[in-house]
Amino acid sequence: MVAESWYVALSAVLFSIGVVGVVVRRNPLVMFMSIELMLNAANLAFVAFGRRAGNADGQIAVFFVMAVAAAEVAVGLAIIVTVFRLRRRLSVDDLSLMRW
Fold this sequence. Notes:
The protein has 100 residues and is mainly alpha-helical.
């Protein structure tokens, strides 16, 4: 069996890749994919730590994170599609124009 530390290390690498994707890229779709990668890395860490503790608390937390991720994708993609229909291009700078 693989030790939990390998799963936590993989989770840290995936989370780091997601952070770099959010910071470096200006395309909202790539940013959303990077955020999803970060949430999946957190899920992996939850499951690994839950396995180490010997209970299902980590898996229960994963279901809540997945629900939040689904809601975030639904709302975020609706905003992105609306901005694309209005401006015919996607940029984070265009989304900053939506402020009051």
